[in-house]
């Protein structure tokens, strides 16, 4: 469970802080609902922050990058792979959507495995599957071997299931109270950077040439590079990645370690989450937002080529702009949440601006000015992708003391379902009515999700403003009063 969920900070002595400000050993925070009994505080357990925590999160971020790169490497040069394998554009769209489809049935057993076996086992399985998939794709560079390249992509998509739920878990197990949102953002950052490279590199490595042998050579180079990186990361995980630090980083983690495995029921946890109304609202809004991002990313090549023929490389750069702007948004959201704890206001602002960004992008795509598309796409990515770590951390807040892996898995499952629906529907709409109609389709669903955000905030306002004083107070004192005003203004 997240180390954010403890109450009452306990301060280190002046001597302790001077002796070792980085790797301190001492009390961190009181565990939830165990700090006071009979007016006395529960005994504090030793905690410590290890420098190795940064290596762990960066290694995770790296293999997440390698995996997410492959999500879009087919879609961003859709027209080239369509020609090479002699298939239609919808078949190549499925090379991206297979990442979404695979996630839905496998997330629950993988989340169970994460709870039962821990981070290291999940990391080993993820990198092994990713490495296997890349080498299968190396063997698929023949025009008649489309089924083989689909198999390789399936292995990589299965690896993604073991990856997406880990950022919040790594942040909780390894990082201190004031670092968890930043650490979670770094974990998500790797995934986003991989998508950015997936937009940028394939159009450069695989030019649109007519000679099939030359085209096969270029595709092989891309696949060999990916396989080499995936193999190196698998070896690093085997020798470097650790399950957890010897001493917990916070009192909340110390309390979590004291819970025996037989005391935890995964199915009961799922049932409790599905009865949590604010969390269900977050699942819907998160799925709508991220599903739109998946659709835009998958179909970006087709949308750009329609209005700007021959601009495959430019389409990749626009995709890069979307994701780089999103990475900046993610990091800013992570640091902002660590400093302010204003989950509700930030959620509303980012979701609303995602809707505005989608409307502006839809309206300017066909104007004939690529520099305008770069600007509007960047603005869209900043807010839409910036919602990713915000959703993870907000979910942890709404569902404590449930497992972060379980709540993150349900969020991602929603995103995959909406991503498949939006990608298929928008693709069909674009084919029949054009890109403007397809983008308006996404705008409508983002607009439908906006009232859900308000209902979500309304539930959280009641929870913050009426909870007893002895309960967990994650929000700041100023935020609680701000929420009272928000409730008065928005829900008279």
UniProtKB/TrEMBL annotation:
InterPro entries in alphabetical order: FLVCR1-2_SLC49-like, MFS, MFS_dom, MFS_trans_sf
Entry-linked PROSITE patterns: MFS
Entry keywords, A to Z: Cell membrane, Endoplasmic reticulum, Erythrocyte maturation, Glycoprotein, Membrane, Mitochondrion, Phosphoprotein, Receptor, Transmembrane, Transmembrane helix, Transport
Domain of life of the organism encoding this protein: Eukaryota
Subcellular location: Cell membrane; Endoplasmic reticulum membrane; Mitochondrion membrane
Ranges of compositional bias, category Low complexity: 32-45
Catalytic activity: heme b(in) = heme b(out); ethanolamine(in) = ethanolamine(out); choline(out) = choline(in)
Transmembrane segments: 54-74, 94-114, 121-139, 145-168, 180-201, 221-241, 279-297, 317-336, 348-364, 370-390, 410-430, 436-458
Gene symbol of the encoding locus: flvcr2b
Residues covered by the Major facilitator superfamily (MFS) profile domain: 56-461
One Pfam family from the record: MFS_1
Membrane topology category: Multi-pass membrane protein
Summary of the function given for this chain in its UniProt record: Uniporter that mediates the transport of extracellular choline and ethanolamine into cells, thereby playing a key role in phospholipid biosynthesis. Choline and ethanolamine are the precursors of phosphatidylcholine and phosphatidylethanolamine, respectively, the two most abundant phospholipids. Transport is not coupled with proton transport and is exclusively driven by the choline (or ethanolamine) gradient across the plasma membrane. Also acts as a heme b transporter that mediates heme efflux from the cytoplasm to the extracellular compartment.
Main location: membrane
Organism of provenance: Echeneis naucrates (Live sharksucker)
Gene Ontology cellular component annotations, sorted alphabetically: endoplasmic reticulum membrane; mitochondrial membrane; plasma membrane
Protein name: Choline/ethanolamine transporter FLVCR1
Biased composition (Basic and acidic residues): 1-31
Biological processes annotated in GO: erythrocyte maturation; heme biosynthetic process; heme export
Family: Belongs to the major facilitator superfamily. Feline leukemia virus subgroup C receptor (TC 2.A.1.28.1) family.
SUPFAM superfamilies associated with the record: MFS general substrate transporter (SSF103473)
Stretch list, region Disordered: 1-45
Annotated GO MF terms: heme binding; heme transmembrane transporter activity
């Amino acid at each position: 469970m997240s180390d954010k969920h403890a109450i009452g900070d306990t301060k280190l002595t002046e001597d302790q802080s001077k002796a070792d400000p980085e790797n301190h050993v001492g009390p961190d925070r009181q565990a939830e609902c165990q700090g006071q009994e009979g007016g006395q505080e529960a005994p504090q357990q030793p905690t410590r922050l290890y420098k190795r925590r940064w290596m762990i999160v960066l290694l995770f971020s790296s293999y997440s990058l390698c995996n997410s790169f492959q999500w879009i490497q087919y879609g961003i040069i859709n027209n080239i792979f369509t020609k090479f394998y002699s298939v239609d554009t919808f078949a190549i769209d499925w090379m991206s959507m297979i990442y979404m489809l695979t996630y839905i049935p496998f997330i629950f057993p993988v989340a169970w495995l994460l709870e039962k076996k821990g981070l290291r086992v999940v990391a080993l399985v993820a990198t092994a599957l990713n490495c296997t998939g890349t080498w299968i794709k190396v063997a698929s560079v023949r025009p008649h071997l489309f089924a083989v390249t689909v198999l390789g992509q399936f292995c990589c998509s299965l690896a993604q299931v073991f990856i997406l739920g880990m950022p919040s878990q790594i942040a909780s197990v390894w990082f201190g109270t004031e670092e968890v949102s930043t650490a979670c953002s770094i974990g998500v950052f790797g995934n986003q950077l991989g998508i950015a490279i997936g937009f940028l590199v394939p159009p450069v490595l695989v030019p649109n040439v007519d000679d099939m042998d030359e085209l096969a050579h270029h595709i092989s180079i891309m696949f060999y590079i990916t396989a080499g990186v995936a193999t190196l990361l698998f070896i690093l995980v085997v020798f470097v990645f650790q399950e957890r630090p010897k001493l917990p980083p916070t009192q909340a983690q110390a309390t979590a370690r004291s819970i025996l495995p037989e005391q935890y029921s995964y199915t009961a946890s799922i049932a409790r989450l599905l009865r949590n109304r604010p969390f269900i609202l977050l699942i819907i809004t998160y799925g709508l937002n991220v599903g739109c991002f998946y659709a835009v990313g998958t179909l970006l090549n087709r949308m750009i080529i329609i209005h700007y023929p021959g601009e495959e490389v430019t389409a990749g750069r626009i995709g890069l702009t979307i994701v780089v702007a999103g990475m900046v948004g993610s990091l800013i959201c992570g640091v902002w949440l660590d400093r302010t704890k204003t989950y509700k206001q930030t959620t509303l602002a980012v979701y609303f601006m995602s809707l505005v960004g989608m409307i502006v992008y839809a309206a300017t795509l066909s104007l004939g000015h690529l520099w305008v598309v770069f600007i509007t796409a960047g603005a869209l990515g900043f807010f839409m992708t910036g919602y990713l770590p915000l959703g993870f951390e907000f979910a942890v807040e709404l569902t404590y003391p449930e497992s972060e892996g379980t709540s993150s898995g349900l969020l991602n499952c929603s995103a995959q379902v909406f991503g498949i629906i939006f990608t298929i529907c928008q693709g069909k709409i674009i084919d029949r009515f054009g890109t403007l109609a397809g983008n308006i389709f996404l705008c409508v669903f983002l607009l439908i999700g906006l009232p859900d955000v308000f209902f979500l905030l309304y539930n959280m306002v009641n929870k913050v403003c009426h909870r007893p004083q002895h309960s967990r107070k994650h929000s700041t004192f100023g935020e609680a009063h701000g929420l009272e005003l928000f409730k008065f203004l928005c829900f008279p």
